[in-house]
């Protein structure tokens, strides 16, 4: 079993010793291992040994290097951007499936989260987001990609909350400018 090494530093050794001495004064028996750990932690300004361990674990997490940024295929983002006008309205349906999916993510981002919408409501929203006139295609594809959930009776829709892939996040950010 490996033990986590927990460094203990104090800016004032004299104050540390004074606090530890105060805690040890008047004891009839020597402290147990755990009691001594708690005393040392308190002398260093922590509530107890668990507080010291938690603080050290948090420091180690914060000191660890940040994860590498996700790779983004900006060529795909550029292709998808070409399908939108200056107002962020989808003006044409792309031929490439990967670009279609990115465009659907961009539309998904503009749908209200957490609301159930009946078919006329979702149709109005989608019609405002595209100009090529095939809202059924968009609706079906969004349901097929699990971006939109259709109710059991098929009459209402709700946006599915998911984290978009890196290319979709890049596209959504550029369209929201």
Q: Any low-confidence stretches, pLDDT <50, length ≥5?
A: none
Give me the secondary-structure category: mainly alpha
Helix content: 40-55%
Question: How many individual β-strands?
Answer: 3
Order of helices and strands: HHHHHEHHEEH
Radius of gyration: 29 Å
Can you summarize the main beta sheet?
3 strands, antiparallel
Strand order of the largest sheet: 1-3-2
Question: Average pLDDT, to the nearest integer?
Answer: 92
Count the helices. How many? 8
Tell the overall outline: elongated
The proportion of strand residues reads: 5-15%
Span of the ends, CA to CA: 53 Å
Draw up the topology in text.
Elements: H1 13-24, H2 33-43, H3 49-63, H4 74-81, H5 97-109, E1 116-118, H6 119-129, H7 135-144, E2 148-150, E3 156-159, H8 166-175
Antiparallel strand pairs: 1-3, 2-3
Helix pairs in contact: 1-2, 2-3, 4-5, 4-8, 5-8, 6-7
